[in-house]
UniProtKB/TrEMBL annotation:
Protein name as it appears in the record: Right handed beta helix domain-containing protein
Originating species: Eiseniibacteriota bacterium
InterPro entries tied to this protein: Pectin_lyas_fold, Pectin_lyase_fold/virulence
Keywords, comma-separated and alphabetical: Signal
SUPFAM superfamilies per UniProt: Pectin lyase-like
Domain of life, per lineage: Bacteria
């Protein structure tokens, strides 16, 4: 599967997302000079459609609103240097979905708050490019879904020594699906603070990760890995303080670990389900880094229900 579709597919998807909204489409900069101004005027069901450009502001999205880039990754939101670049509040209608779609989001600082932070359990982050923002590239955390949410078809890159995905509330559910996670050199991949939290990590490709750490400040915390490719990495677990390491369920994943330690270092609570393989996933040599699988890849057709592994 390719990370993002072709021009026709993208155009059709944009028409569907914008056209299906129950409310009004507010355009930036044609009608509103900034994303902030458009969001201040937006109501439940409204869509803020953003043209190409660099926006040094924090996009604060209340529940029931959608922010979408007209062109894929054309709207480049970089924050104001002091807050999360994109913040989703709970407001008075916390059950209403909030969507961030097709934008490029990057930190304007090398050390700072979350790139994307949400208090809404029904947040959807889709088709976005999320980048680190400085020579040190320490952003903690990158995507902070306090009450849970969905991250789908995103490319997260250039983030070193970070917490990539984090939840904090009890019972939080995170779904990370069809994403490419690149240049994650060392840090926490998934972390939960709230008791009885659950994360589903499905159809993702983790590229060049020295260590992908699952950590827990909660009990219990379960992570289910399905149909992923972990290339050049080691999966680790850690329970902080009195908390136990997360419980991992691994099914239909391809692991190519670094030869440093056990590929599941310090993960006492893990279950090896069916279909896991260890070895070279055999990516094609693609300078565009789309991570196509070679026709002879062991990851083709060997995932759950005959799917390919990875994104």
């Amino acid at each position: 599967m390719r990370l993002f579709g072709g021009t026709g597919i993208v155009a059709a998807a944009l028409a569907t997302i914008v056209g299906s909204a129950a409310g009004t489409t507010l355009e930036v900069p044609q009608e509103y000079p900034t994303i902030t101004a458009a969001l201040a005027a937006a109501g439940v069901g409204d869509t803020v459609l953003v043209d190409d450009g660099i926006y040094f502001e924090t996009a604060r999205i209340e529940p029931g609103r959608t922010v979408i880039s007209r062109n894929l990754h054309g709207a480049d939101i970089r924050g104001n240097g002091g807050n999360a670049v994109v913040f989703v509040g709970s407001g008075q209608t916390s059950d209403a979905p909030a969507t961030i779609s097709r934008v490029l989001v990057q930190s304007a600082t090398s050390w700072g708050p979350a790139v994307i932070q949400s208090e809404n359990p029904n947040t959807l982050v889709e088709d976005c490019l999320v980048l680190g923002g400085g020579p040190i590239e320490n952003v903690l955390p990158v995507v902070w879904l306090e009450s849970g949410g969905i991250v789908r078809r995103c490319h997260v890159d250039g983030l070193r020594q970070s917490t990539m995905f984090q939840s904090t509330d009890p019972g939080a559910y995170m779904l990370i699906e069809d994403c490419l996670l690149g240049e994650f050199v060392f840090g926490i991949g998934i972390q939960a603070f709230g008791d009885s939290s659950y994360t589903e990590f499905r159809n993702n490709t983790v590229d060049r990760a020295y260590s992908f750490l699952c950590s827990s400040f909660s009990r219990p915390y379960q992570v289910h890995f399905v149909n992923n490719i972990f290339w050049h990495h080691n999966l680790q677990c850690y329970g902080f303080g009195e908390y136990i390491s997360p419980e991992l369920l691994l099914s239909y994943n391809c692991f190519e670990p670094l030869d440093l330690w056990d590929p599941f270092y310090n993960c006492p609570e893990y279950i090896r389900g069916p279909g896991n393989i260890e070895g070279d996933p055999a990516f094609c040599d693609d300078p565009g880094r789309q991570w196509w699988l070679d026709p002879d890849s062991p990851c083709i057709g060997t995932g759950e229900n005959g799917e390919d592994m990875g994104v």
